[in-house]
Amino acid sequence: MLATRLKPLMDNGLRNYLRRVPNDSVLYLPGLDYGNWYTGTIKDYSGKGNDGTITGAITRKTSSGLYHLDFDGSDNRVENDVHIIDAYPFTLSGWINISSAQSGVGVMLALVNLSSDFTYYAIQISSVNFYGSLVARNTTTFQTDGAVDLSDSYHFISGVFASATSRKLYVDGVEVAEGTDSVTYDSINVDRFSIGRLGRASPFGYVLGQIGLVHAHSIGLTATQHLDIYNQERHLFGV
After folding, report:
1. Nearest residue to 29 (alpha-carbon basis) of 46, 17, 14, 15
2. pTM for the full model?
3. Which of 85, 102, 151, 162 gives 220 a disulfide partner, CB atoms 3.0 to 4.6 angstroms apart?
4. Residue 126: which CATH number?
5. pLDDT tens digit string along 76-130?
6. Could you list the residue range(s) of the whole structural domain that residue 49 is in?
């Protein structure tokens, strides 16, 4: 069954699949154009021009031929000081294989106010129990935890920030937690995306591990869409 499901992907080729820009993308980093990485840039294929600046992270290649980035847990990150989301709803997602993290938390992907410590929206993983979480903070922090062990292999993690009172965390295409505490979205001051750390005024949460195929969408993906993405991409990461 798995071979049947993946056959269209393999027939069309890895690069052709990765060039299919997901609907309503505002950030899509599939790891193509490897040559650009030598200049410290990972190209955004969403059509919005939100290329990421690579600091320190090293290029790796999976057995499928997919390029991804290896972060050292110290100062490595990918960032761009740009406003990519205007309002709820939105979805943040990507694949991560985390070994550890600075200060007990590793941030896979975040939207932040780079001049403040008090406004950010993020997917993070604890390096204590390796549970994933969604965090929404606009002065007050609210965290939505999913009790799924994410250690020792790649996992597809996604967060749907549907509204001020609805945030859903998905792991490997399955919803594992929902948060309903009210957090408004700061449409004015969120001016950076960060991968591999929380790039606020006082950065923290550096990831020790690998991250690939990062997405941000200006819609809330459905449960069916999450599962479809997981099943389409899992073989690229050997899961």
Report:
1. 46
2. 0.91
3. 162
4. 2.60.120.200
5. 999 999 999 999 999 999 999 988 776 789 999 999 999 999 999 999 998 888 9
6. 2-237
